[in-house]
Amino acid sequence: MIIANGTPSKALTGIAGFDEITAGGLPQGRTTLLVGGPGSGKTIFGVQFLKYGAEACEQRGIFVAFEESPHRLIDNFKSFGWNLTELQDSKLFFLDAQPTPDLIQGGPFDLSGMLAALSSKIKKMGAVRIVFDALDIVLALLPDAAARRLEMNRLHQWLLKHELTALITAKAGGDDTSSGGQPFGFMQFMVDCSVVLNHRVDLGVSQRNLRVQKYRGSGFNEDESPFVIGKNGFDVAMARSLGRADAQVSSERVSSGVERLDTMLDGGYYRGASVLITGFPGTAKTTLSGAFAEACCRRGDRTMFVSFDSDGSEVVRNLTSVGIQLERYVQNGCLRMVSARTFTGSAETLLVHIKTLAKEHEALCVVIDPVSALAKSGNELTAHAVAERLVDWSKGAGVTLICTSLLDEISTDAQSRTPLQISTIADTWIHLNYLVQAGERNRGLSIVKSRGTAHSNQVRELILSKEGVTLADIFTAGGEVLMGTMRWEKESAARVANEVAEVAVKLKRVSLDAEEAVLKVRAKSIETELVAKKVERDLLIRTTESQKREVSGGRERMRELRGADMAEPESKVKAAKP
Amino acid sequence: MTNSEMFKFCLYVADDTLNSRQAVANLRALCDRYLAGRHEIELVDVFKDPDRAMDDRIFMTPTLVKLAPEPVERIVGSLSQTNLVLQVLGLEELVA
Fold first, then answer.
1. Contact status, residue A34 vs residue A13, Cβ threshold 8 Å
2. Which of A63, A103, A109 to probe by mutation at the B interface, max B CB count within 10 Å?
3. How many separate domains does chain B show?
4. What crossing angle do the helices spanning A145-162 and A112-125 adopt, rounded to 10°?
5. Using CB atoms, which residue from A106, A109, A117 is nearest to B46?
6. CB A279 within 8 A of CB A423
7. How many domains does chain A have?
8. Are A130 and A159 in contact (CB under 8 A)?
9. What is the pLDDT of residues A505-562, one digit of tens each?
10. Nearest to B54 among A110, A112, A121 (CB)
11. Domain membership flag for residue B12
């Protein structure tokens, strides 16, 4: 993109995206030519330009309608919520300049009459913007190229004289808009700015593009930019403009709706993050995003759930079966279910729809299920850009975005690519997978990436039940990953084995206790025996001593009685002693 | 239609541009030839009276409006195609 400095002053159009492409709008006081096929949005562009001028820029305008009657136009634009009647006459004047169908031409004529009438009107209301809608209609009445050229020149001179910011719309002849066949070829050179609208159908899907062809004295984005005619008029899709300040980054965490997943993510998703949930059909992507939506609503965050697969009420009903109750939030207005199945059109159109609805709902959290539906409804190339812009938009708006994406079942290397390559721009990527084992399919959940958060490297089994969504550790044994019944079997086998082991230990303890008791008893009896022996011995000693005493006492008594001398029998006693 | 009916015309012109001058001349010649004594012509210069042009929804000049007799008809251009003009004015029988 080229943005020149010191460009001539510009008149904002109020058309989202267009003012960015042209760095400020249409050239002020100059003429712009808007060429496009039927139904390409020329009139809308013109009216939006005038309306914005009248409402936001204090620039009054005149709309010269060659093709449609003003009150029909005003009626039609009510569908955009534009109340033009309010502006009419004082700020915005509609001139019905349709040639009457019974117009009879009796020779050459010119447009001086109209220009004279307009001059007077401009003076009276102080208009500075003017749109000539479908100038080709009136030019077609002129007999030859020379006359057309003359009238275009007259118009041009008149516009320059009045220094009006003018927009002339004209139908493109055929599909070749770039070369600009006569009579617009001449006009292309005359004007200061030229914009081409084109409306083509790719693979049955309508795709509108806008391209600025020339802009004297100003830089502009030269590429074709997709645009849509949305609920509120023109919306030109723009990649994020370079000058835009980065969106505020939040470090607040929001719950994913599954407690253990929050733990795995070290606290949940970041607010304002873009989360991608990929998986094969039926891997519970919707359920996981439903759990998120419920958690958001419980917190009180306004949430929008866009479903491309089924109706909003169906999603609500289906989620009830896994314990996710969204009905009450739909009723209290916190949650808006959007069935995008009825949306038609290119990816661009869908994006604009989603953006508009989210804005209307003031959504803080948006779920898009699945985002891969974007690729189906348009060609894949634009869908990719759209996915990028979706993420860009959500970041800019601070919206927490959950996108689910279907993976191709036959794609073996599922983790490496997602249909829209959105995986590279998403902040958190959760992958759901099937593990087919022993005649069962079980859901596995893993976090492929999560920017800026510590996250678990573990694969968990995702279990859906009436009570809700839970994660279970998977059973790893001997290098085998087990889920579902096999996990349960293994777990119960382990439980049984555990119990057996516990019982065995108990038994062992009991028997040891018993042995100990026996030993203790034995020890007691031995001790008792010991005591008895001691007593016996003591007794023995005592009796022996008393005997001895008795014996010696008796001997002395005998000696006394015998009256024998003391000295002589001493040796005999000694010898008898041992 | 009787030959005594009065024709009322209003011719809107843009100053003295070529087309407008031709229209005035052509109308005068036609009236003098076919409607002698039973016509009225009002000339409106849109540059002098632009609001009139706006009100009467005259955007192409010159424009001839036949106000009477009914119906009201409009012819745009210099009126150089006399036969066509006569047809529109309901004067076919005068076409030679």
1. no
2. A109
3. 1
4. 20
5. A117
6. no
7. 3
8. yes
9. 999 999 999 999 999 999 999 999 999 999 999 999 999 999 988 888 888 888 888 8
10. A121
11. yes
Give this complex's ipTM: 0.85
Burial group, residue A50, by CB count within 10 angstroms (0-12, 13-18, 19+): buried
Residue B46 lies in a domain: yes
Residues present in chain B in total: 96
pLDDT digits (tens, 9 = 90+) for B14-61: 877 888 888 899 898 888 888 888 888 999 988 888 888 888 888 888
Selecting from B14, B26, B73 the residue whose C-beta is nearest the C-beta of A116 gives B14
In a domain, A489, yes or no: yes
Q: Which residue of A has its CA nearest to B59?
A: A114
| B contact test, residue of A69, A95, A111, A114 with most B CBs within 10 A | A114
For chain B, the distance separating the N- and C-terminal CA atoms, rounded to the nearest angstrom, is 18
Size of the A and B interface in Cβ pairs below 8 Å: 102
Domain-embedded: residue A110: yes
| Residue B95 within a domain | no
CB pair distance less than 8 Å for B60 and A116: no
Domain that holds residue A302: 253-473
How much is the pTM?
0.62
Q: A467 with A533, same domain? A: no
Q: Quick one: A272 and A225 in the same domain? A: no
Q: Specify the residue for token string 């994006």.
A: A351
In angstroms, what separates the C-alpha of B73 from chain A's closest C-alpha?
A: 9
B 2-31 residues with CB < 8 A to A: 12, 14-15, 17, 19-20, 22-23, 26
